[in-house]
Amino acid sequence: MTGAALNVCLQYYEAEVAELVCACTAVVCCRCSPEQKAQIVNLLKRYKKPARVAAVGDGGNDVSMIQAAHAGIGIDANEGKQASLAADFSITQFHHISRLLLVHGRFCYKRSCALSQFVMHRGLIISIMQAIFSCVFYFASVSLYQGYFH
């Protein structure tokens, strides 16, 4: 799709383009203007809500796309350092992306699991303490944590 055709599609057929783009596992934008690349990223962010968008670029024309994404990955390549300076993550070669995604994806998963375990254990401890407090004071309708957890 040429840049002019993409511009018309984004202007008049945004929902159809969003449906097509969201159905893909990966979207490659080439021979587009920097604004169109950023529009595609914003389209993905708007229509595919729970997902996170990562944009990979290696030149100055990819800066707006990288900055529009949740995670911008810049490749320090022959085209200059503009993309790597504007990105959240900077790598030297394209094949380092798999390691970057696997390592950071694993760390994100582990942090999410630790947070969910903390929330569950905190709720369990608070409930047990309230139950013991109620038993000690003959099941009076008095809260142990007044004003904190309503």
TrEMBL record:
Gene3D superfamilies: HAD superfamily/HAD-like. The keyword Transmembrane applies. The chain crosses the membrane at residues 124-145. One of its GO terms (molecular function) is metal ion binding. It is found in: Membrane. Residues 85-148 form the P-type ATPase C-terminal domain. SUPFAM superfamilies: HAD-like. One of its GO terms (biological process) is phospholipid translocation. The keyword Transmembrane applies. It is a multi-pass membrane protein. It comes from the Eukaryota. Keywords: Magnesium, Membrane, Metal-binding, Transmembrane, Transmembrane helix. GO terms for cellular component: endosome; plasma membrane; trans-Golgi network. PANTHER family: PHOSPHOLIPID-TRANSPORTING ATPASE, PROBABLE PHOSPHOLIPID-TRANSPORTING ATPASE. This is P-type ATPase C-terminal domain-containing protein. It comes from Panagrolaimus davidi.
